[in-house]
Structure formats: structure tokens, C-alpha cells
Amino acid sequence: MKKVLIFVLCAAMTVCVFGACSKKDSKETTAAKSTTVKMTTDSAVIKEADAINLIQSYSNEELGLTKKERKKASFMVAGSGVEVEGDNYIEVVATIKNEHKDGDKVSYTFDHLGMYYIRYDGKKIMRKDMKSKEAKYIDMKIKAVPSTTAAHEHKETSEKTTAKEKE
What we know:
- By secondary structure, the chain is α+β, with helices and mostly antiparallel strands.
- The chain has helices at 2-17, 48-56, 60-63, 67-72, 148-166, and strands spanning 28-30, 38-39, 74-77, 81-84, 87-102, 105-119, 125-128, 136-140.
- Strands 1, 2, 3, 4, 5, 6, 7 and 8 form an 8-stranded antiparallel β-sheet that branches.
């Protein structure tokens, strides 16, 4: 249990540290100035597991990953949102967890293979160019993946309507 908690905390801290990107409408964007602010994701259309499912729905090529990298990678969502030049993003990271043993001590490091940003309104998705030494971002094609939250709310609304009709 302690290992899982340490992994989650380390992952969240690592993901939050790498939250810099720039807003432009071109295919590639270079971040001149980046500002990262922690914030709640309550207003995001897609969040948590839905954000991971959305990113995982892309091909290896679209994600910038090899087949081998994709197979080893774990996808995680940052615990808080990232603000980049006025826009709010959910950050999803494809990472590999490495365990290091030194006697009785065990530590972990994470190799980030890909970093992906979903704007809160769901209308823009970017991936960080991990091979570039500069902070460079590439716009990705937007896919409409139904949110389990939205599907649940729709089901509740339908059930209420059906119950009223029966009365």
C-alpha cells in the first residue's frame, strides 16, 4: 500500500512540474514564456479517467510513441489543472516507472515518454514534442470520446423524464 501511495504522490508531483506550454493556433508552438498555476479541474469537460481514455484512443503515431514505448507506458492525469497563457488544460502523461533498490531503500523515477494537454472546453488537444530541446507543442486532431460523467448525467435525466411520464 505504501508503494502505491508513494508512486501516486511522485507521479502527481512529477506531472505538475512539467506543465509548461504556449497558446498559438499553428501546428507547432514554441513556448517563449510559460506560466504554470495549479487549479481545480471542476469546470473541465473531460477529466480523470475520461482524459486518459481520450489520449489512449489516439494511434502510436499521433501520440509520438513507438509500439514498444506504448506497450510499456502508463498514462496518468495530473491532480490539478494547468493554466497556460490564459487557457486551462488537463495534463496527461505517458510515463514508465523505474524502481531503484539501494539495500533496504527503494526509490522510483519516471521516464516521461509523452505529455498531452486537453483544454478544459475539449476543443484543443496538444502534445509536447519530447525530442525538441525547446518547449515545442503540436496540435492534435480532436476526437469526441463520450465522457462517462456526461453519460451518467444523461442517464439520470432520462430516468427522471421516464418517471414523470409514468405518473
